[in-house]
Amino acid sequence: MKRLLILGILCLSMPFARAGVLEDIVPRPAEAVLLRGSAHVSGLPFKCDPAFSPDVQAAVGSFAARLGYISGRTCPFSAPPGLSEAFAAGKVKGALFLRDSSLGPEAYSIEVGSGSVIVRASGSSGILYSLETLRQMLPAAIYGDKVAEKERWTLPCCIIRDEPRFAWRGMHLDSSRHFWPVEEVKRYLDAMAMYKLNRFHWHLTDDQGWRIEIKAYPLLSQIACWREGTMVGRDFSSNDGIRYGGFYTQDEIREVVAYAARRGITVVPEVDLPGHMLAALSAYPHLGCTGGPYAAWTRWGVSDQVLCAGKESTFEFLEAVLSEVAELFPGEYIHIGGDECPKDEWRKCPDCQAKIRELGLHDDGRFTAEQYLQNYVTRRIQDFLATKGKKIIGWDEILEGEPAPGATVMSWQGTAGAVEASARGFDAILAPVSHCYFDYRQTDDPDADEPLSFNGVVTLERIYSLDPLAGVDPAQAHHILGVQANLWTEYISTPEHLEYMLLPRLLALSEVQWCPAGQRDPERFLRVLREHEFPVLEQAGFNYRKTINQ
Ligand code: ACM
Ligand code: ZN
């Protein structure tokens, strides 16, 4: 697809549609040409090619139902046999969703003529994205639930050809430090879907709480999901003494996975190992180097109590847990963490040291024997998951030692990890703390009245300025799968606060992930936020930061 934005070239007159409609779409489409005239869509019949899956038909049907309801004139929906042939013969009008296998898996096109809307895509992702684009082109009332007959329910005549720059358009959520009920997770997924993100990285385990039911290890959801208090504000020396916990049953996990799938989002679970495991140790102390006792942490930070890498029981545990995780999450990747694993315990542990000797590991000036021991754990788990048909993703630290071919690196410490990984032939995803940590404050104004957050700053402008391929050898650029932002929740305990940290930064992220190189425009983006996206977020009922620094 030609990656050119040709806006306004044919802007001769546009009597009914909202001015600047194509400019206001977030994320900005790869190519959008404005034509003369507009199409009324209230009451328009919607017809979907029956060759699309039932989920696609349901998505188009519910779009039509909502448009009909909000605009005050029903939009009848059908999936008639022979739709493509009838269209080719010029016998059918309305909003038509046609299958076009020549388009890429995430691509779509929209052609709006004076009485018709023709959407083409090869599969479900393209159709879902086309629906989001159409919503973006309509009055913001389409995101709400109130009838708004008086709005202008028209689309400008146009041609849009669109597909994303990156295949991995991720957003992460930490459900360990604070637990998010299924309903809030669904709202989070709704926000992601609105801006065409397609990977939900779900951080389910950590020192402060284990959040997923595992049938083979029932104490994880009886003991490991609880902590005896939570630190207050930034006071690391005490906690509130209030028991805090929660976990997702396997049925709830399946519900979230299915909900995400209907929105084109794959859920990528993270079981962080071998560090960040204190909560699991509290339930199964034999998995640690000392045997405990252990308790899920009541403060933030990284515990130096980790899984013992010298005992076979650790691998029995991990294999049982990951077998159930692999069953629950149908995506091709499982994130195995690997970050911030202190090695103090391993240095003192006879079992870990015996393992190091057995494997012939030693410090070689580049890495320590204990770093190579973590590498051994990573490889063993990678091999195990391969038997389940899964690939691993790990944080930067899996580059320590020699990662096995096929591992994907999620680069959080900066962008250097992704540059190095791609140079070494590994796939990589960018989630650099410098641009993509949404637990950081949104302004560098120290006097701004901001909620509690991690003590760093990631402004809208900062995330928007990320150049994902900076420093990457063009010959290795195909290894950069995409970009993701992370939302750690140490300092975030309510849905309102969570949404505030997510929005509107998610929108800036979406343009980094979606838009062709060189097509982002910060001035346009900030204007569109103010004029179009804030009303959209308002109508959709999200809490968001309403101040734009400048
Ligand atoms: C991380 O922020 N420790 C991945
Ligand atoms: Zn040990």
Unreliable stretches covering 5 or more consecutive residues: 1-16
What is the oligomeric state here?
Answer: single chain
Helix share bin: 25-40%
Count the E strands. Answer: 21
Strand content: 15-25%
Q: Quote the average pLDDT.
A: 95
Q: List bound small molecules.
A: acetamide, zinc ion
Distance between the termini: 36 Å
Spatial strand arrangement across the major sheet: 14-9-8-21-18-17-16-15
Report the sheet with the most strands, covering strand number, pairing sense and barrel closure.
8 strands, parallel
From the helix content, strand content and strand pairing, which structural class follows?
alpha/beta
Shape: elongated
Radius of gyration: 25 Å
Structural commentary:
It is a single chain. The protein has helices spanning 54-71, 83-88, 124-137, 182-194, 250-262, 278-283, 312-328, 344-348, 350-359, 369-387, 416-423, 433-436, 460-464, 495-502, 505-514, 522-540, and strands at residues 31-40, 46-48, 77-78, 94-99, 108-112, 116-121, 154-162, 168-174, 199-203, 205-206, 209-210, 226-227, 244-245, 266-270, 333-335, 391-395, 408-411, 427-430, 440-441, 454-457, 480-485. By secondary structure, the protein is α/β, with parallel strands linked by helices. It is elongated. Mean pLDDT is 95; it is low at 1-16. The strands form 5 sheets. Strands 14-9-8-21-18-17-16-15 form an 8-stranded parallel β-sheet, covered by helices on one side. Strands 1-7-5-6-4-2-3 form a 7-stranded mixed β-sheet. Helix 1 packs parallel to helix 3 (124-137). Zinc ion (ZN) binds next to helix 9.
